[in-house]
Every structure is written in structure tokens, then in C-alpha cells.
């Protein structure tokens, strides 16, 4: 590649973030970054317009650059052809069955070959391998802990969505026990109090010692899930991201100890790049050997 600058794009359920990425030094360039709110219930043309306006803004200061981009996109999606199959998720349903890649290419005035799409969970881990917590490792697994559970693997230079959120676990599926929903619901069951998010739960720890026990159980749930994930993939490192990772001090030690009790001694790293992991990983679609 003659020019190492590529746009990395992260599309979420309520926003789009985009920035230029220097693939030579594997760095996001914050001076060339944009974030826009999206109404994911709008019609297809309106959604595409917002996406493309954000991407175009990234290139405005460097108009001579070839417009190459990698996009982290939620699924289900045909990432090679560029067709959305997202439905029943209260977002982007107007795009169902449409060739999003071709629509964006036409709107941006570029060839569809200049747009590469990848699952957002895979982009998270790929970004952390390129320039974050997993840099220097040849194999890795990653999880994102938030409103839901994201999982990804990295082997032979390729990051993929592991799609284990719905894997059977305990009396339900993994996401039932390893998500903000479990923490908030468990606290409501023991206290009768409802909090809106995990940050609010952490704020109550000084006045309610029961929350520490809840986080301990969360760490044990996490370890139980990770044990099978690790044995199936034999990674050199585990990367944990997502908003709940910001509260790792309350559960990570319990998870590590539970894994050691099962003879699993693999480093667990908290993701370093934040949202930039998705941007970096998406731009990494243009690197042949990560």
C-alpha cells in the first residue's frame, strides 16, 4: 500500500465514529476524527447519508487521499458482499436485505472495492492486537462486557466473531449471566433497589457491602465461561473490554483465581484502546499480515 492512511469506522446502534488510521505506525489520528449521532430507526437513505457524511468529514482535510475505509459493523451481515441482515434488534431494520456497501460507495463516489466490512466484535480484538493490550501475541480471545456479551478470537492473523453470547451456560445462555443485565437484576433481587447502569452500582459499594459479593459471583460466572472458551481456542492472552471492564477491580481477581483453580494460567489484559479498538481493527482490514 503506497499510502498508509485509511479511514477506520465504528458503527454502533446510536452513533458512528470514524478516524484516519496510520497503518505504518498502527495509530489512530485524533485530529482527523468524527463522531455523529444516528437515529437507527430512520429510513435507509437517511442512515446512509449520516454514515457517509461522517466518513467524508474524515477525509476533508486530506482530499488527495484515496478513500479507502474499513468498517466495523454489527451483525448479522454478509460482510463480503455488503448486505445487511439486521432485524428484530430495534436498529437498522430499514437496511435489511440491502447492499449497504454499494449504497455507500455510490454516495461517497468510490469503488465498492474501497470499502471493507468486518464484524464489530472481531474489529475490537483485531484493534487490540494491532496496537493495544494484545499487541505482540499471535493468538488471543477477547470479550466485551456491557449491555450484552461480545466474543472474538484471533488466530493466524485473522480476528473473527466467536458469537458465543447465546452459548448454553448454567440455566440459560452466557449473556444471561455475564452482562450488565445480570448485575443490575441480581442487585434488584437482593436489595429491592433498581440502578440504571453498572457505574451506578459501583457508586453504591461504600454503603452496601452486598454489591462486592455480587461482583464476586459475576467474576465466577466469567471464569466459568472463559474456561470453555480458552480450552476451545488455546490463546496466549485474554482481552476484556466493554464498559464493565472499567469496574474490573471488583471482579477480575475472583475470575483469575477461579481459572487458576482449573489449571488455566493465561494472562488477562484489560483493553487499552477503548472505542479506538474498533476503529483500529476496522482499518486493519487493509493489512495483509497483522
UniProtKB/TrEMBL annotation:
It comes from the Bacteria. InterPro entries: ATPase_NBD (IPR043129), ROK (IPR000600). PANTHER family: BIFUNCTIONAL UDP-N-ACETYLGLUCOSAMINE 2-EPIMERASE_N-ACETYLMANNOSAMINE KINASE (PTHR18964:SF149), ROK (REPRESSOR, ORF, KINASE) FAMILY (PTHR18964). Belongs to the ROK (NagC/XylR) family. This is ROK family protein.
